[in-house]
Protein backbone atom coordinates (compact mmCIF):
# COMPACT_ATOMS: atom_id res chain seq x y z
CA UNK A 1 0.00 0.00 0.00
CA UNK A 2 2.91 2.39 0.66
CA UNK A 3 4.70 1.45 -2.58
CA UNK A 4 3.28 4.13 -4.86
CA UNK A 5 3.50 6.79 -2.11
CA UNK A 6 7.26 6.16 -1.77
CA UNK A 7 7.69 5.42 -5.51
CA UNK A 8 8.85 1.87 -4.94
CA UNK A 9 8.55 -0.92 -7.52
CA UNK A 10 8.75 -3.71 -4.99
CA UNK A 11 8.73 -4.25 -1.26
CA UNK A 12 12.25 -3.26 -0.07
CA UNK A 13 12.15 -4.91 3.34
CA UNK A 14 10.73 -8.33 2.76
CA UNK A 15 12.06 -10.76 5.37
CA UNK A 16 12.44 -13.63 2.89
CA UNK A 17 16.05 -14.71 2.12
CA UNK A 18 16.11 -13.15 -1.35
CA UNK A 19 19.73 -13.13 -2.67
CA UNK A 20 18.84 -10.29 -5.09
CA UNK A 21 19.00 -7.94 -2.12
CA UNK A 22 22.29 -9.24 -0.74
CA UNK A 23 24.38 -6.31 0.45
CA UNK A 24 28.09 -7.07 0.42
CA UNK A 25 29.82 -6.08 3.62
CA UNK A 26 33.39 -7.22 4.29
CA UNK A 27 32.21 -10.19 6.38
CA UNK A 28 29.54 -11.10 3.79
CA UNK A 29 32.09 -11.03 1.01
CA UNK A 30 34.51 -13.12 3.03
CA UNK A 31 31.89 -15.69 4.00
CA UNK A 32 30.61 -15.92 0.42
CA UNK A 33 34.14 -16.38 -0.90
CA UNK A 34 34.68 -19.07 1.73
CA UNK A 35 31.56 -20.98 0.68
CA UNK A 36 32.37 -20.73 -3.01
CA UNK A 37 35.98 -21.74 -2.48
CA UNK A 38 35.01 -24.60 -0.15
CA UNK A 39 32.65 -25.99 -2.79
CA UNK A 40 34.89 -25.58 -5.82
CA UNK A 41 38.06 -26.75 -4.07
CA UNK A 42 36.19 -29.79 -2.65
CA UNK A 43 36.99 -28.97 0.94
CA UNK A 44 34.59 -31.54 2.41
CA UNK A 45 33.03 -30.07 5.53
CA UNK A 46 32.18 -26.38 5.68
CA UNK A 47 30.33 -24.71 8.56
CA UNK A 48 28.45 -21.41 8.37
CA UNK A 49 27.43 -19.91 11.70
CA UNK A 50 25.73 -16.70 12.72
CA UNK A 51 23.14 -15.19 15.00
CA UNK A 52 19.45 -15.53 14.10
CA UNK A 53 18.50 -13.30 11.18
CA UNK A 54 22.03 -12.31 10.11
CA UNK A 55 21.78 -13.66 6.56
CA UNK A 56 22.91 -17.31 6.56
CA UNK A 57 20.15 -18.65 4.32
CA UNK A 58 20.41 -15.66 1.97
CA UNK A 59 24.15 -16.23 1.67
CA UNK A 60 23.74 -19.96 1.01
CA UNK A 61 21.29 -19.23 -1.78
CA UNK A 62 23.64 -16.71 -3.33
CA UNK A 63 26.62 -19.08 -3.07
CA UNK A 64 24.76 -21.98 -4.67
CA UNK A 65 23.27 -19.73 -7.33
CA UNK A 66 26.73 -18.63 -8.43
CA UNK A 67 27.62 -22.06 -9.84
CA UNK A 68 26.72 -23.12 -13.35
CA UNK A 69 23.74 -25.43 -13.42
CA UNK A 70 24.70 -28.92 -14.58
CA UNK A 71 28.22 -28.66 -13.10
CA UNK A 72 27.18 -28.45 -9.45
CA UNK A 73 24.41 -30.63 -8.03
CA UNK A 74 22.81 -29.53 -4.79
CA UNK A 75 20.64 -31.09 -2.15
CA UNK A 76 19.26 -28.40 0.16
CA UNK A 77 17.85 -29.60 3.46
CA UNK A 78 16.09 -26.74 5.19
CA UNK A 79 14.33 -28.73 7.91
CA UNK A 80 16.79 -31.21 9.38
CA UNK A 81 14.49 -32.64 12.09
CA UNK A 82 14.55 -35.91 10.19
CA UNK A 83 15.19 -39.56 10.90
CA UNK A 84 18.31 -40.96 9.23
CA UNK A 85 16.38 -42.90 6.57
CA UNK A 86 14.20 -39.91 5.71
CA UNK A 87 17.32 -37.76 5.49
CA UNK A 88 19.00 -40.14 3.02
CA UNK A 89 15.83 -40.46 0.98
CA UNK A 90 15.54 -36.69 0.86
CA UNK A 91 19.17 -36.26 -0.27
CA UNK A 92 18.79 -38.89 -2.98
CA UNK A 93 15.61 -37.47 -4.40
CA UNK A 94 16.91 -33.90 -4.22
CA UNK A 95 19.86 -35.05 -6.33
CA UNK A 96 17.33 -36.55 -8.74
CA UNK A 97 18.06 -40.18 -7.84
CA UNK A 98 15.07 -42.47 -7.36
CA UNK A 99 15.80 -44.68 -4.33
CA UNK A 100 15.44 -48.33 -5.30
CA UNK A 101 15.41 -49.43 -1.65
CA UNK A 102 14.57 -47.94 1.74
CA UNK A 103 17.45 -49.55 3.62
CA UNK A 104 20.30 -47.38 4.84
CA UNK A 105 23.02 -49.47 3.24
CA UNK A 106 21.09 -49.70 -0.03
CA UNK A 107 20.61 -45.96 -0.26
CA UNK A 108 24.26 -45.31 0.64
CA UNK A 109 25.45 -47.67 -2.09
CA UNK A 110 23.19 -45.95 -4.60
CA UNK A 111 24.41 -42.52 -3.51
CA UNK A 112 28.05 -43.61 -3.66
CA UNK A 113 27.69 -44.96 -7.21
CA UNK A 114 26.00 -41.80 -8.37
CA UNK A 115 28.64 -39.60 -6.70
CA UNK A 116 31.47 -41.54 -8.36
CA UNK A 117 29.82 -41.03 -11.73
CA UNK A 118 29.47 -37.27 -11.06
CA UNK A 119 33.13 -37.16 -10.05
CA UNK A 120 34.13 -38.88 -13.30
CA UNK A 121 32.22 -36.22 -15.19
CA UNK A 122 34.08 -33.56 -13.16
CA UNK A 123 30.84 -32.44 -11.54
CA UNK A 124 30.55 -31.27 -7.94
CA UNK A 125 27.92 -32.40 -5.46
CA UNK A 126 26.92 -30.40 -2.41
CA UNK A 127 24.64 -31.26 0.49
CA UNK A 128 23.53 -28.16 2.37
CA UNK A 129 21.89 -28.54 5.75
CA UNK A 130 20.34 -25.28 6.92
CA UNK A 131 19.08 -24.80 10.51
CA UNK A 132 21.78 -27.30 11.55
CA UNK A 133 21.24 -26.42 15.22
CA UNK A 134 18.19 -28.70 14.93
CA UNK A 135 20.21 -31.76 13.86
CA UNK A 136 20.15 -34.68 16.26
CA UNK A 137 23.51 -36.10 17.32
CA UNK A 138 22.58 -39.32 15.53
CA UNK A 139 21.99 -37.56 12.23
CA UNK A 140 25.13 -35.46 12.67
CA UNK A 141 27.11 -38.66 13.00
CA UNK A 142 25.56 -40.05 9.80
CA UNK A 143 26.40 -36.85 8.01
CA UNK A 144 29.98 -37.09 9.22
CA UNK A 145 30.16 -40.60 7.79
CA UNK A 146 29.04 -39.27 4.41
CA UNK A 147 32.38 -37.48 4.12
CA UNK A 148 33.96 -40.94 4.05
CA UNK A 149 32.60 -41.18 0.54
CA UNK A 150 35.79 -40.21 -1.21
CA UNK A 151 38.32 -41.24 -3.79
CA UNK A 152 41.93 -41.66 -2.70
CA UNK A 153 42.50 -37.95 -3.27
CA UNK A 154 39.16 -36.12 -3.27
CA UNK A 155 35.90 -35.83 -1.37
CA UNK A 156 32.98 -37.02 -3.47
CA UNK A 157 30.49 -34.80 -1.69
CA UNK A 158 30.87 -31.38 -0.11
CA UNK A 159 28.76 -30.72 2.96
CA UNK A 160 27.74 -27.32 4.27
CA UNK A 161 26.20 -27.17 7.73
CA UNK A 162 24.64 -23.81 8.52
CA UNK A 163 23.32 -22.94 11.95
CA UNK A 164 22.88 -20.51 14.80
CA UNK A 165 25.60 -20.08 17.48
CA UNK A 166 24.19 -22.95 19.56
CA UNK A 167 25.23 -25.24 16.70
CA UNK A 168 28.83 -24.22 17.21
CA UNK A 169 28.41 -24.88 20.94
CA UNK A 170 27.06 -28.30 20.08
CA UNK A 171 30.09 -29.05 17.94
CA UNK A 172 32.25 -28.41 21.00
CA UNK A 173 30.73 -31.39 22.79
CA UNK A 174 33.36 -34.12 23.26
CA UNK A 175 31.31 -36.75 21.40
CA UNK A 176 31.27 -34.52 18.30
CA UNK A 177 34.98 -33.79 18.25
CA UNK A 178 35.56 -36.10 15.30
CA UNK A 179 33.14 -34.07 13.25
CA UNK A 180 34.60 -30.79 14.49
CA UNK A 181 38.07 -31.89 13.44
CA UNK A 182 36.87 -32.48 9.93
CA UNK A 183 35.53 -28.98 9.42
CA UNK A 184 37.90 -27.40 6.94
CA UNK A 185 36.29 -23.97 6.70
CA UNK A 186 34.32 -21.84 9.14
CA UNK A 187 32.29 -19.01 7.61
CA UNK A 188 30.38 -16.44 9.64
CA UNK A 189 27.60 -13.90 9.40
CA UNK A 190 27.00 -11.32 12.09
CA UNK A 191 25.21 -8.19 13.19
CA UNK A 192 26.12 -5.05 11.26
CA UNK A 193 27.52 -1.67 12.28
CA UNK A 194 25.80 1.73 12.18
CA UNK A 195 27.44 2.72 8.87
CA UNK A 196 26.64 -0.67 7.36
CA UNK A 197 23.02 -0.31 8.49
CA UNK A 198 22.73 3.03 6.66
CA UNK A 199 24.25 1.56 3.50
CA UNK A 200 22.15 -1.61 3.80
CA UNK A 201 18.91 0.39 4.01
CA UNK A 202 19.94 2.64 1.11
CA UNK A 203 20.79 -0.35 -1.07
CA UNK A 204 17.52 -2.16 -0.37
CA UNK A 205 15.58 1.01 -1.20
CA UNK A 206 17.58 1.42 -4.41
CA UNK A 207 16.93 -2.15 -5.55
CA UNK A 208 13.24 -1.59 -4.79
CA UNK A 209 13.26 1.48 -7.01
CA UNK A 210 14.14 4.68 -5.14
CA UNK A 211 17.28 6.65 -4.37
CA UNK A 212 15.36 9.05 -2.09
CA UNK A 213 16.57 8.84 1.52
CA UNK A 214 13.19 7.96 3.01
CA UNK A 215 14.57 7.71 6.56
CA UNK A 216 16.22 10.70 8.24
CA UNK A 217 19.81 10.12 9.48
CA UNK A 218 18.48 10.10 13.08
CA UNK A 219 15.88 7.52 12.09
CA UNK A 220 18.61 5.32 10.58
CA UNK A 221 20.58 5.50 13.84
CA UNK A 222 17.45 4.54 15.76
CA UNK A 223 16.87 1.61 13.37
CA UNK A 224 20.37 0.38 14.07
CA UNK A 225 19.99 0.82 17.82
CA UNK A 226 16.61 -0.89 18.11
CA UNK A 227 17.48 -3.74 15.73
CA UNK A 228 20.92 -4.32 17.31
CA UNK A 229 22.18 -4.43 13.73
CA UNK A 230 20.36 -7.69 12.93
CA UNK A 231 19.31 -7.52 9.26
CA UNK A 232 15.99 -9.34 9.73
CA UNK A 233 14.99 -6.98 12.54
CA UNK A 234 16.12 -3.97 10.48
CA UNK A 235 13.74 -5.16 7.76
CA UNK A 236 10.89 -5.56 10.22
CA UNK A 237 11.39 -2.11 11.72
CA UNK A 238 11.70 -0.46 8.28
CA UNK A 239 8.63 -2.22 6.91
CA UNK A 240 6.50 -1.12 9.89
CA UNK A 241 7.93 2.38 9.69
CA UNK A 242 7.00 2.66 6.00
CA UNK A 243 3.43 1.68 6.82
CA UNK A 244 3.28 4.33 9.58
CA UNK A 245 4.90 6.90 7.30
CA UNK A 246 2.35 6.19 4.59
CA UNK A 247 -0.61 6.40 6.99
CA UNK A 248 0.70 9.75 8.26
CA UNK A 249 1.62 10.80 4.69
CA UNK A 250 5.23 11.57 5.71
CA UNK A 251 7.66 12.06 2.81
CA UNK A 252 10.55 11.41 5.21
CA UNK A 253 10.37 9.16 8.22
CA UNK A 254 11.72 10.66 11.46
CA UNK A 255 13.25 8.99 14.52
CA UNK A 256 9.97 9.27 16.48
CA UNK A 257 8.27 6.82 14.11
CA UNK A 258 11.10 4.30 14.58
CA UNK A 259 10.82 4.55 18.33
CA UNK A 260 7.08 3.93 18.33
CA UNK A 261 7.52 0.99 15.92
CA UNK A 262 10.21 -0.41 18.25
CA UNK A 263 7.78 -0.20 21.16
CA UNK A 264 5.10 -1.95 19.13
CA UNK A 265 7.57 -4.71 18.23
CA UNK A 266 8.77 -4.90 21.82
CA UNK A 267 12.36 -4.03 20.91
CA UNK A 268 14.89 -2.52 23.26
CA UNK A 269 15.44 1.18 22.53
CA UNK A 270 18.49 1.60 24.78
CA UNK A 271 21.94 2.14 23.27
CA UNK A 272 24.12 -0.94 23.10
CA UNK A 273 27.71 -1.82 22.51
CA UNK A 274 28.97 -4.55 20.22
CA UNK A 275 32.15 -6.55 20.34
CA UNK A 276 34.85 -5.50 17.87
CA UNK A 277 33.97 -6.15 14.27
CA UNK A 278 34.40 -9.85 13.74
CA UNK A 279 33.08 -12.42 11.32
CA UNK A 280 33.54 -13.57 7.76
CA UNK A 281 35.74 -16.52 7.19
CA UNK A 282 37.89 -18.29 9.71
CA UNK A 283 40.02 -21.34 9.20
CA UNK A 284 40.25 -24.31 11.52
CA UNK A 285 41.49 -23.75 15.00
CA UNK A 286 40.59 -20.09 15.25
CA UNK A 287 37.80 -19.87 17.78
CA UNK A 288 37.39 -16.10 17.82
CA UNK A 289 34.93 -14.16 15.73
CA UNK A 290 31.79 -15.01 17.66
CA UNK A 291 29.47 -12.07 18.09
CA UNK A 292 27.75 -11.88 21.45
CA UNK A 293 24.99 -9.52 22.44
N1 LIG B 1 23.93 -9.06 3.73
C1 LIG B 1 22.63 -8.93 3.56
N2 LIG B 1 22.14 -8.20 2.53
C2 LIG B 1 20.81 -8.07 2.31
N3 LIG B 1 19.88 -8.63 3.10
C3 LIG B 1 20.30 -9.37 4.12
C4 LIG B 1 21.69 -9.57 4.43
N4 LIG B 1 21.79 -10.34 5.52
C5 LIG B 1 20.53 -10.62 5.89
N5 LIG B 1 19.64 -10.04 5.06
C6 LIG B 1 18.19 -10.11 5.13
O1 LIG B 1 17.80 -10.37 6.46
C7 LIG B 1 16.72 -11.31 6.49
C8 LIG B 1 17.13 -12.53 7.29
O2 LIG B 1 18.13 -13.25 6.58
P1 LIG B 1 18.23 -14.85 6.59
O3 LIG B 1 16.87 -15.46 6.60
O4 LIG B 1 19.16 -15.22 5.49
O5 LIG B 1 18.93 -15.03 8.02
P2 LIG B 1 19.37 -16.37 8.75
O6 LIG B 1 20.73 -16.09 9.35
O7 LIG B 1 19.25 -17.52 7.82
O8 LIG B 1 18.29 -16.47 9.93
P3 LIG B 1 17.88 -17.77 10.81
O9 LIG B 1 18.99 -17.96 11.80
O10 LIG B 1 16.59 -17.37 11.47
O11 LIG B 1 17.72 -18.92 9.86
C9 LIG B 1 16.38 -11.62 5.04
O12 LIG B 1 15.35 -10.77 4.61
C10 LIG B 1 17.66 -11.30 4.32
O13 LIG B 1 17.43 -10.99 2.99
MG1 LIG C 1 18.06 -19.22 7.89
What does this structure look like?
The protein has 293 residues and is an alpha/beta fold. Helices cover 44% and strands 11% of the residues. The protein has helices at residues 26-40, 56-65, 84-94, 104-120, 137-146, 165-171, 177-182, 194-207, 217-227, 231-247, 255-264, and strands spanning 45-49, 72-77, 124-129, 158-163, 183-188, 280-283. Strands 2-3-4-1-5-6 form a 6-stranded mixed sheet, with helices on both faces. Helix 1 (26-40) packs across helix 2, helix 9 (217-227) crosses helix 10 (231-247) and helix 9 (217-227) packs parallel to helix 11. Mean pLDDT is 90; it is low at 275-279 and 282-293. Bound molecules: adenosine-5'-triphosphate and magnesium ion.
Number of helices: 11
Give the CATH architecture of the largest domain.
3-Layer(aba) Sandwich
How large is the radius of gyration? Answer: 21 Å
Bound molecule kinds, no repeats: adenosine-5'-triphosphate, magnesium ion
| Shape summary | elongated
The CATH topology name of the largest domain reads: Rossmann fold
Fraction of helical residues: 40-55%
Integer count of domains: 2
For the record, give the distance between the C-alpha atoms at the N and C termini, rounded to a whole number: 35 Å
Strand content: 5-15%
List keywords for this structure.
single chain; 293 residues; alpha/beta; Rossmann fold; Helicase, Ruva Protein, domain 3; 2 domains; six-stranded mixed β-sheet; 6 strands; disordered C terminus; binds adenosine-5'-triphosphate; binds magnesium ion
Amino acid sequence: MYKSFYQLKSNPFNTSPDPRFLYMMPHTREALAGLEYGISARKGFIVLVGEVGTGKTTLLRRALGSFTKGRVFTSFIFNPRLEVLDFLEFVLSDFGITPTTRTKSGMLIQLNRWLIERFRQQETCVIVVDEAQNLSSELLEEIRLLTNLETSSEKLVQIILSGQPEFEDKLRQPELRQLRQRVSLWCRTKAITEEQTAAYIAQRLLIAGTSTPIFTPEAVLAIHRTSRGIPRVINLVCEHALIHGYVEQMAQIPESVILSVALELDLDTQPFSVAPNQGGLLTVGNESGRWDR
